[in-house]
């Protein structure tokens, strides 16, 4: 009987100890879960904002159809609130008569429209040194068509012209939504950082905050680039010079006919005198050799002539 009583008491104590351990474990898990839930709340809310921003465009696309059926005015979409975000570019090739004049005129046109020249190249080709080159300019979007018209006006012929518009409205709206969601996450993380009560929590929140800020800077940088490309259109102009160079007639004064004839006559006389002087110098200089040779030649001639005449005299 005593053994049964001891066994029953031991069993009750074991159940009580097991229940206390389970309560302590549940308390620790609940604390950890509360902390993780607080950290995830901002991320989930930001993702919800991003999802709502992405789904907003679909809702807005369905709104006009519903408005037509009901006869009411459709709401303004976010893309319409920004306006069409289009990047305009153009490439053209022109033939001109005077390269330098046309290039300077184009520079003046760009400056008058508050634009600027990105780069410019020029080279000369052929015996007539014809010039060719290219210019890349950027002008405000509203001056895009006017700049093309001005370039065409200064050309003898437009060889080619191509324009292109890249609509980035959808990308711009998406970047705006991503930027807003990341800013919300940043605000939540900052508030959590103020309430953090441990070093580990501060380190984790700081790491997450750094990633969020890097993403904000990346998105903002892309938006700034798109803003610049939208605000200023880019035009590349290839310029080729074609002209026939005709030499002008020279007047009598520039021909110098009499002076040139007199100079040629004096050159001829000087050449004759120089040749005679050279011959005289040669004869005098070579006389020690020439005189004996001339005497030998004269004696030989006289001797052969005498022998040929001797038989005739005897006959």
Automatic annotation (TrEMBL):
Residues in the signal sequence: 1-28
A Pfam cross-reference name: DUF4349
Source superkingdom: Bacteria
Domain DUF4349: 84-299
UniProt keywords, alphabetically: Membrane, Signal, Transmembrane, Transmembrane helix
Record InterPro entries: DUF4349
TM helices/strands, residue ranges: 279-304
Compositional bias ranges of the Acidic residues kind: 46-62
Renumbered residue ranges of the record's region Disordered: 42-80
Comp. bias (Low complexity): 63-72
Keyword Signal included in the entry's annotation: yes
Protein name: DUF4349 domain-containing protein
Organism whose genome encodes this protein: Alkalicoccus urumqiensis
Source species taxonomy: Bacteria, Bacillati, Bacillota, Bacilli, Bacillales
């Amino acid at each position: 009987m005593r053994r049964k009583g001891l066994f029953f008491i031991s069993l009750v104590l074991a159940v009580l100890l097991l229940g206390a351990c389970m309560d302590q474990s549940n308390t620790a898990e609940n604390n950890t879960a509360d902390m993780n839930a607080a950290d995830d709340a901002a991320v989930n809310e930001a993702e919800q904002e991003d999802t709502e921003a992405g789904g907003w465009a679909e809702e807005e696309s369905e709104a006009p159809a519903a408005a037509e059926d009901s006869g009411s005015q459709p709401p303004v979409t976010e893309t319409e609130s920004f306006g069409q975000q289009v990047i305009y570019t153009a490439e053209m090739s022109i033939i001109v008569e005077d390269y330098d004049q046309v290039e300077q005129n184009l520079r003046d046109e760009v400056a008058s429209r508050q634009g600027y020249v990105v780069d410019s190249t020029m080279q000369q080709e052929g015996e007539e040194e014809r010039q060719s080159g290219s210019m890349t300019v950027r002008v405000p979007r509203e001056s895009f068509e006017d700049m093309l018209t001005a370039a065409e006006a200064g050309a003898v012929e437009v060889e080619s012209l191509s324009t292109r518009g890249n609509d980035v409205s959808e990308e711009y709206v998406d970047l705006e939504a991503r930027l807003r969601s990341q800013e919300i996450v940043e605000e939540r993380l900052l508030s959590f950082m103020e309430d953090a009560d441990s070093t580990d929590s501060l380190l984790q929140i700081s790491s997450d905050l750094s990633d969020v800020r890097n993403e904000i800077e990346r998105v903002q940088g892309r938006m700034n680039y798109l803003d610049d490309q939208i605000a200023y259109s880019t035009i590349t102009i290839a310029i080729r010079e074609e002209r026939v160079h005709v030499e002008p007639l020279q007047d009598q004064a520039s021909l110098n006919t009499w002076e040139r004839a007199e100079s040629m006559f004096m050159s001829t006389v000087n050449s004759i005198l120089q040749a005679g002087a050279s011959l005289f110098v040669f004869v005098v200089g070579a006389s020690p050799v020439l005189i004996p040779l001339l005497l030998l030649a004269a004696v030989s001639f006289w001797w052969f002539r005498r022998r040929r005449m001797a038989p005739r005299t005897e006959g």
